[in-house]
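Notebook, p. 212. Picked up where the previous page left off. The plan for this session was modest: take the two constructs that came back from the sequencing core last week, fold each one, and keep the raw output in the notebook itself so nobody has to go hunting through shared drives later. Recording the first one now, exactly as returned: residue sequence, then the structure token string.
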Amino acid sequence: MKNINIIGAPSTFGQRKLGVNFGPDAIRYAGIVDRIRNIGYTVVDKGNIEVPEINLDKFNSEQEGLRNIDEIIQVSENLSNSVSDSVQSGAFPLILGGDHSIAIGSISGISKHYDNLGVIWYDAHGDLNVPEESPSGNIHGMPLRILAGDGDDRLVNVSNYAPKVKPENIVLIGMRDLDIGEREYIKNNNIKTYTMADIDRLGIQQVINESIDHLKDKTDGIHLSLDVDALDPVETPGTGTRVLGGLNYRESHFALELLHNSRLITSMDLVEVNPLIDQNNHTAEQAVGLVGSFFGETLL
């Protein structure tokens, strides 16, 4: 894994706060390319995929059903194609969001290259809602369930296949805000889940080691989807769905160092950085530091 492709997905359509579409460029501005190159990798920034223009009247309206679904389908197909090309070329795709609905496209582009893709979802939220249980209609609360094969058929069948991931190949880390339907889905499908209480009790090292052990023998690739709201909002204020009581910055560095050492992660999302509600691009800078740890940056 010496060649990294950076792919920006500047989509804000999965939720209702403008600004997360500037996330990829905020992360670039915080120095992500140089940070990874200085570790010793070859980095090719593929730029941002094409996304639809934002119609503010529609974006701010009270939409019936799934909000901005047509735009999200377009984003998902475009991102899937770009990410698939990256995997095909032998590079490691690092996808910069955008809100977490972009994972529909990123994982759709990745999973077709694996027989049993594993997914580590490092997030405050499960993102396992289905439309009939979502009062908001915000699709950034649904991508993992869609990827597992449940939800609107147009999203489930992005890239013309489904499911992209099996529930038994999912690990949730950092959970502290789950809706009732999500809890039932997790229990019914026996999804490996670590709440913040579990992390407090076990420690992040054991959580990551158990996650790796859970996935390593039954998957042929593992995708890491990292939402910056997994961290406590004191650490990452520039994100749209803040939940107190999250992982701290040092814990997350250590988690990513352990994932790097496993040599099992084959692709990664970094999502939900919103510079418009941030403080001096602090959240993007924190995100870049975490990516440094993930790619093996060390002090000595």
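Okay, moving on. Second construct, recorded in the same format:
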Amino acid sequence: MTESNVTLKQVIKLIQKVLNYMDPRLLDHGEKVAYILYKLLKVHKGYTDEEIYKLCTIAIFHDIGAYKVTERDELLDIETNTPINHAVYGALFIKYFSPLGDLNEVVLGHHLDSSYFEKEREIVIPKEALMLGLADSIALIHLKDNAIKQSWLETKKKEYLEENVGLFQKVNKDDFISTRLSDNTYKEELYSFFGRKVVYRDEIIAYAKMLAYSIDFMSESTLKHTIVVEAVSYEVAKLSGMSEEDAIRIKIAATIHDIGKIAIPIEILEKPGKLTTEEFEIIKSHAIIGYKILSDLNIDDIRDIASAHHEKLDGTGYPFGLKGNEICKEARIVAVSDILSALMGVRSYKNEFNKEKIIQILRNMVENNKIDTHIVNLVIENYDDIIEKVNFQTDELMSRYVTMKKQYKILLSKLDSNNF
């Protein structure tokens, strides 16, 4: 693993920053759930610090499966029974695309109540799911009422087990947790704990990729776009004579190049037909949002490549209006790969372009001083070979996507409340 002076504190801040962009109504929700869970696990005294680090990290992005506004509306309505769709989707996503895949069942079961554990089940849910569910419920009631009433807690003893509620009542003596949630002083305690855990560059990148894929899995077309940009960037980097290490670095930047789109409403991302001027400006903001998300993580080299994928050599691009030599070679490669992927893909407003049309468009952009001549020539000269390798490389990831969709339906059926 690569040396790093980054701690889990910075990774958690990255994840929470992304989730805050997704829905400001749930501002710092994952962070608050993680803090409550941290206090429960500490007072329990049955967990090592390493186990607590992992469980609290999972708590930060426990709602990662709720990417649609309607689903987040349901999460905010604490008075109703929350559908478990997002928990199933989130658990599968964590299983296949996060560094904490072995803890996916904790997320899978965080909206189940204690009755699920009263008899033997086909799907085994760990007891920590109930603790996460209680922490989630407490954070939401505090968001709603700015308080955690004892009378409300008493009603949760059967749902989340008297033992777990008792743990919370112990640490919330004199409204300690409620006060810290209200004045945000919980952050200092939580991040002091996370700040003691050193993480490596590989782990940081794994979490960034997880967040990027969480956007892409909104639809098959967005997923394919990222996979193609990632694969083309790697192939072109190798063709240009770059080392394997540099080619991998470009591939990683390509994977997370659209991470800022997590802040863009899905209605705009998937809008059929042409975008309005206002909508296009909203779409464009993803580049600067991505830059901000990836800052302060000791991966500035990758951030700078990823965030410059819409810059143009003549200075007409965004987000910074860079031009000429201000745009590094790595960013130029990702930019051409991004355009190639967009031209290859089918969208609601266009069909897939054939090879001749794609090459014509790329050449026109070179003539207009938009993209790099050398990189475009590499693509044209090796077009068929690149596409063949790209198709081969994308098969495995798309296979995981298909597997996820199938398992989602199976798990949802098995966990449906009507089957209890």
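Notes on construct two before I forget. Residues 6-199 form one domain.
Flagging for discussion at group meeting.
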